[in-house]
Specification:
The complex is a heterodimer of chains A (about 600) and B (about 250). Chain A is an alpha+beta fold. Helix content of chain A is about 25%, strand content about 35%. In chain A, a hairpin with a 3-residue loop joins strand 26 and strand 27. In chain B, helix 3 runs antiparallel to helix 4. The longest helix of chain B has about 35 residues. The chains are: A alpha+beta (about 600), B alpha+beta (about 250).
């Protein structure tokens, strides 16, 4: 909102308030009284209102006495109205009045002084007749209707519906908080001291208004149930209840007051209220005509039974759901008896208990396939109202059992072991020490810091490179004949040289020169990838020259080949010196050509 | 030369392991049974000072410290044992139990899903174990590359096999890197309550406190003070006496 708009709004509100004040000042004050009803019965409480119109400032007139009536102040209520621009205000002081005797009475006219003026009211007529009707709350006729201390404005009572009960009989108990002419706040749940009597939790309280002895009380009722656990006479109570009592100038406004503004003129006092002590006589259950399978259930119950399946395999469970409903002490209700269970395996039933019902879900496992039904289910209880025992019987319940008994024994044993294991409570501690030292090693030397570890990786890498190179070479040798011959040539030449040298040593001139010529021819044709027919002197020299071989090398080749030709065809040069010279030239030539890239 | 040294060391360790170590373990076990935990610790510590270690040795010391009520040292030694025998069932059980006895109940921040998955897969391996795994994978890849020259079947599935192996190799290398990075920085609080300060001085303002058995990361060392980082990210300086590093840098 903008600042300007805010300012205009504030001015308008101020002007309105000023107008209202001026209008109020100009109003005339009038005083009226009115009663809620004119025809009453003794003990009936009605509201009496004292209305001052034209003002909201008249205080409570302290109207404390009225012939033939008890009177108590409830509190004021004020009203402001603007109708067609006309302002009116009023204040109403409310009282509760209760007639104490029969007859016709007139209330008023009353006079009230305020600001130097005396205002006089009208009069109202009240006719009071005898109270012949039933009391408003019948249960107040039993124990506890009398206030614990009548003189107190706030008190509690403890009211069991019966004081003579059977053992384990559930008896409703009411604890009531009464209050008149006072507000009660911060009410805590009641506590009840008891021996040999079990008392349940209190329900959510119920608020009521009751009249006792002609006096109206606001009440808060806490209900619960009790049952005696032993036979004899026992004390119930006193019950105690912690709360805060709020008094407002001795004139209370409303019950259980939580009005914010009420706090401004009130005094709050935390108190612990105590009830009277009740004596409860507990009788034992009669021995006469007690059923054999009676297990202590006390109340009035009904029984309902259902099966989870009509057909089941041997060894598989079927659930029997047994519901017990009704009224009574469900703590005493135990699982009903299932008859003829020899051929069944029974597990403990799962129990669910509510306020008015208790359910047992019993897992039943048929152990034989000859079973055709689950036997009767009986439930006996004692009804304290009729004071007799009752037995309800349901069943038998047909059940079709299929499958064979084989292997069931082992399965049952397994299940039992498993059950036991589930129930086992495990301890907690550390496991025992190791008796063997384990893989001891020198401290602080991880593998990754060891150079050998990394060398291993390098070695593996080198191995791969080696294999790769070898493979490539092998592949080339297989696919490239020229390369293979070239590669083969030096090795073959070396072998041939050795045999030529041997021939030289032996002095076999003809074989020697044949060997020399074959060596050069094979070596160079392999080196130059020539066919055997091309390995003539002229072609060899020509190819070598074209590949850039120097003249002196070519000259050496020509000399050797000429020497070979002479020896082979003209049989010249068979001398040892000539042969040695040729051999040396041959060696030199092989080395020279071997070094060249042809 | 290296081969000779390695052989001598191996012989020494084996001899020590077979006689003295077993004797020490036996003696310590007797002390342990008798409830003389301090004496048992002394026996085990003698092996450590002799430069030897094993997961079982650390485990036993952890047990002894637990029995003496020293939860901090117990946690420390179990942590040390975990590096060497991470898959030992007794160790796992005892470690969990001791953590549950700690004041902070061994609470730790849940790592990311990927990291948890890696911990689950590689948790059973020590650092050396991962090193061996990486080497085996490496040799396997090389073997695949070589055998492809000679075997058609290998050549057919080569890409698939190498891809899978390469992924495992990379992940294992990452885990190894992480483990090595953490080594030397993981520490355990030994004092019942250690004050972590803003500055490495004894009169500096206390930032937060760490309780016994809490795991912290050492960030920096300055004379008698460690700069530590708690799992929630808070950092500060703590006295060197109050904590102990699980494994020195260069140790497993």
């Amino acid at each position: 909102m903008k600042r300007g708009t805010l300012f205009i709004s504030a001015v308008l509100v101020l002007l309105m308030l000023l107008f209202m004040c001026l209008s109020a000042a100009a109003e005339n004050v009038s005083f009226e009284i009115s009663a809620e009803k004119e025809d009453l019965r003794t003990g009936e409480t009605i509201r009496l209102s004292l209305t001052f119109k034209g003002t909201r400032d008249v205080p409570e007139p302290h109207f404390t006495h009225l012939d033939a009536f008890t009177i108590s102040y409830i509190g004021p209520s004020s009203r402001v109205a603007i109708i067609n621009g006309r302002y009116s205000s009023s204040i109403i002081h409310n009282y509760h009045i209760t007639p104490l005797k029969t007859g016709s009475f007139q209330i008023g006219p009353l006079a009230v002084k305020y600001n130097g003026n005396t205002y006089t009211s009208n009069a109202v007529k009240i006719n009071v007749t005898e109270d012949t009707a039933a009391p408003p709350i019948p249960q107040d006729q039993v124990y506890g209707t009398k206030p614990y201390k009548k003189t107190e404005r706030v008190f509690i009572t403890l009211t069991p519906t019966k004081t003579t009960v059977y053992i384990n009989e559930a008896v409703p108990v009411a604890l009531r908080l009464f209050a008149r002419d006072a507000g009660v706040r911060e009410i805590e749940l009641p506590e009840l001291s008891n021996v040999n009597i079990s008392v349940g939790q209190f329900d959510k309280p119920i608020q009521r208004r009751v009249v006792i002895g002609g006096i109206q009380y606001e009440t808060l009722e806490f209900n619960t149930t009790m049952f005696a656990t032993s036979v004899g006479q026992f004390k119930l109570g006193p019950a105690s209840l912690d709360c805060t009592v709020v008094m407002r100038d001795n004139l209370p406004r409303s019950f259980f007051d939580d009005n914010l503004f009420g706090n401004m003129f009130t005094s709050a006092k935390p108190v612990t209220l105590k009830s009277e002590v009740m004596t409860i006589s507990v009788l034992p259950l009669p021995e006469e005509s007690r059923p054999k399978d009676f297990r202590g259930a006390v109340g009035s119950f009904d029984l309902d039974v259902g099966l989870s399946a009509q057909e089941v395999k041997v060894g598989d469970p079927v659930t029997v759901k047994i519901s017990i409903t009704g009224k009574g002490n469900f703590n005493t209700v135990t699982a009903p008896v299932i008859s003829a269970t020899e051929d069944f395996k029974l597990y403990d039933p799962a129990v669910k208990q509510n306020k008015n019902s208790k359910t047992f879900e019993q897992a039943v496992i048929p152990m034989k396939n000859t079973i055709n039904s689950i036997g009767q289910i009986r439930f006996s209880y004692f009804d304290p109202v009729s004071q007799t025992y009752h037995t309800i019987t349901k069943g038998p319940f047909p059940l079709l059992v299929t499958g064979s008994d084989a292997g069931l024994k082992a399965k049952t044993i397994d299940a039992q072991t498993k059950e036991k294991r589930q129930q086992e409570v495990l301890g907690k501690d550390i496991a025992y020490i190791k008796e063997a030292p384990g893989a001891l090693k020198i401290k602080g030397r991880p593998l990754y810091l060891n150079p050998l570890y990394w060398l291993l990786h390098v070695f593996v890498l080198l191995l791969y490179v080696g294999v790769l190179v070898y493979h490539r070479r092998r592949q080339r040798l297989q696919g490239d004949d020229g390369y293979a011959r070239k590669l083969r040539a030096p090795k073959q030449a070396r072998a041939a040289l050795r045999s030529v040298k041997a021939l030289l040593a032996e002095g076999k001139a003809e074989e020697f020169y044949d060997g020399v010529f074959r060596l050069i021819s094979d070596y160079l044709s392999d080196k130059l990838h020539l066919s055997p027919g091309e390995a003539t002197k002229s072609s060899l020299v020509g190819v070598l020259r074209s590949r850039g071989v120097q003249d002196d090398t070519l000259k050496m080749l020509e000399d050797i080949l000429s020497a070979c030709d002479k020896a082979r065809y003209a049989r010249i040069g068979f001398g040892a010196d000539e042969m040695s010279k040729t051999y040396q030239q041959l060696e030199e030539l092989i080395v020279l050509i071997g070094k060249m890239k042809l | 030369m290296i081969r000779h040294i390695a052989l001598i060391l191996l012989m020494a360790v084996t001899a020590y392991g077979s006689d003295t170590t077993k004797e020490v373990f036996k003696k310590a076990a007797v002390y342990y049974v008798e409830g003389k935990y301090e004496s048992a610790i002394a026996q085990y510590e003698s092996l450590l000072t002799g430069g030897l270690e094993s997961g079982e040795l650390y485990y036993n010391i952890g047990n002894c410290y637990f029995k003496t009520g020293d939860l901090g040292r117990s946690t420390l030694y179990y942590e040390r044992a975990k590096r060497l025998i991470p898959n030992d069932a007794d160790l796992k059980a005892n470690y969990e139990f001791v953590r549950s006895q700690l004041p902070d109940k061994g609470k730790s921040q849940q790592p990311a899903l990927f990291k948890r998955l890696l911990d689950r897969v590689f948790g059973v391996f020590t650092i050396d174990g991962i090193c061996v795994m990486i080497t085996v994978l490496y040799i396997f890849v090389v073997a695949l590359l070589i055998t492809r020259f000679y075997l058609d079947a290998v050549r057919r599935y080569l890409l698939l096999l190498i891809s899978i192996t390469a992924i495992v190799f990379v992940v294992a290398s990452f885990v190894l890197y992480e483990r090595i990075s953490v080594a030397g920085s993981e520490a355990v609080v030994l004092a019942d309550k250690a004050e972590v300060r803003y500055e490495p001085f004894s009169d500096a303002t206390v930032f937060f406190t760490i309780t016994v058995g809490t795991k912290v990361q050492v960030q920096q060392i300055k004379s008698d003070w460690y700069k530590v980082r708690r799992l929630d990210g808070k950092q500060g300086w703590v006295s060197r006496k109050a904590i102990a590093v699980v494994a020195e840098k260069g140790e497993q």
